[in-house]
Amino acid sequence: MVILHIISSNIDKEATQLMLKKCLFPVAGYGTRFLPATKSMPKEMMPVVDKPLIQYAVEEAMNAGVADMGFVTGRTKRAIEDHFDINYELEKEIAGSGKEQRLSSIRELMSACTFNYTRQHEMKGLGHAILTGRSLVGDNPFGVVLADDLCINPEGPGVLAQMAALFNQFRCTIVAVEEVPEDEIHKYGVIAGEAISDNIIRVTDMVEKPAKEDAPSNLAVIGRYILTPDIFDILEQTPPGKNGEVQITDAILTQAQQGCVLAYRFKGNRFDCGSVPGFIDATNYVYQNLFKG
Ligand code: G1P
């Protein structure tokens, strides 16, 4: 009996460790495309209608079952920490005025999730940012959400939730991809691979921001990843790549060569809120389809 109990509790422990419970949000970048707006305000705090980009990102993770939110942050990003905390003065001021309901979405997040922060001291690329988040993640699989890419699926689960369901089935690193026009391919990590089904591709190649002539396909990685924790040891050994930065794309290619990485064509709309036109499109979409006034 005792042995059985030990075995079953080990299985339970393994199953829990394999579920997606943690998510990293790399938020140390400058947001130069939105200057002067982002001179002293984090780009992740730019509001799409009435909610900052980072809150959409954290809500997407919470809706995927994640409760442990880790931020790789930097100087000038304190507003993000304040956003996920109580503002006593404001709350006292608006108590009983009917305006408190405007804080209900953030309150819900704060009661359901924990928030941890670590600082990236130098900007050495997305791979370096993710490696900086190692202490927040430990030896667990984790999501990565880039708040610049706002993803909305009006018809069902969010993109990270779709990926988490796939992760429960395949237990390997998963990247979200979508087709992009040829003249935009140079802005993304681009994959090549073998189709397993309509929406799932086994990755065989991955290139960071290729020229359109060198792109292995038109399938671009967007800012949603589920990574297995072996990525950290790989990142430690990954030399700087494109633009002299440590690229997560290069580390994921190593994982693909050593084992299995899947690319997933997600359901829903993605807005590139790191660009002005994408940000405007997102604002119009949210205002017309989701905003309740
Ligand atoms: C990063 C990644 C790139 C990915 C993109 C998605 O690039 O390096 O592979 O396609 O995010 O948004 P960034 O946009 O940070 O330059």
Automatic annotation (TrEMBL):
| Domain Nucleotidyl transferase as annotated: residue spans | 28-286
Identify the species of origin.
Parendozoicomonas haliclonae
Q: Which residues cross the membrane?
A: none
The family line of this record is:
Belongs to the UDPGP type 2 family.
| Protein name per Swiss-Prot or TrEMBL | UTP--glucose-1-phosphate uridylyltransferase
Q: Which InterPro entries match?
A: GalU_uridylyltTrfase_bac/arc (IPR005771), NTP_transferase_dom (IPR005835), Nucleotide-diphossugar_trans (IPR029044)
The answer to whether the entry has keyword Translocase is: no
Keyword annotations for this protein, in alphabetical order, are: Nucleotidyltransferase, Transferase
Taxonomic path: Bacteria, Pseudomonadati, Pseudomonadota, Gammaproteobacteria, Oceanospirillales
Q: Name one Pfam family in it.
A: NTP_transferase
Q: Which GO terms describe its biological process?
A: UDP-alpha-D-glucose metabolic process
Q: Which reaction does it catalyse?
A: alpha-D-glucose 1-phosphate + UTP + H(+) = UDP-alpha-D-glucose + diphosphate
Per its database record, what is this protein's job? May play a role in stationary phase survival.
| EC nos | 2.7.7.9
Instruction: Write down the superkingdom of origin.
Output: Bacteria
Q: Which residues form a coiled coil?
A: none
GO MF, one term, reads: UTP:glucose-1-phosphate uridylyltransferase activity
